[in-house]
Amino acid sequence: MALAGLPVPWLAALFGVVAITVGAWLIARRSRDQRWGRLVAIDAGRAATFRSERYHLIGRPDAVRRRRDGTLIPIELKRRPAPAGGPFRSHRVQLGAYCLLLEETTGRAPPFGVLRYADAEIEVPWDRAARQLVLATLTEVRRPYDGRAEPTPGKCSGCRWAEGCDASMASPSVRR
Known about the structure:
This protein is α+β, with helices and mostly antiparallel strands. The chain is built from 4 helices and 9 strands, in the order E-E-H-E-E-E-E-E-H-E-E-H-H.
C-alpha cells in the first residue's frame, strides 16, 4: 500500500531522515543552550518575576539559566537579526536591568547576560559600565516629563497616543 503515491519503504525512509534531522537539531540546540547553564525559568510556563524594592524595579527575563557555580544568567530573546553595529542601547538596558534584578534578589551578580537574536547570540558583560547605564536610565525615566518632545512625522505616525498628545504632529498647535 502507498500513501500519497509513495511506496511504503520510501515513506519510511523519508520519515526516518526527518526524524534524524530534527533529533540532531534538537541535540545541537540543547548543547548550545547548555553552555549558558541549566534552564531554571522561562517566560512561558516557568516564568520567574524578579523584584527590587531598592530600585523599585520588577522584571521577567525571557529565560534564566543557572551556571555550575550557581550564578543565574538572564537571556533575552529578540526575533530580529542582530544589529550590525552591536546591540541597541535599549536592548543593553533591558538586559542590564535583568542582571541588576538577579543581583539584587540572589545576592550574586551575574558575570554577563545573553541577547539571543534570530541569527546570533551576544554575551553582554554585567560590569560597572553596564550598571551605570541602567542606573542612569532609571534616573532619566523617573524624572517628570518636561515637554521637550520634538514631534516628527516618523515618531507620531504610528503612535497610538497621537490624538490626545499635546506634542503630536496631529495636534493643531504643533502643525506648521
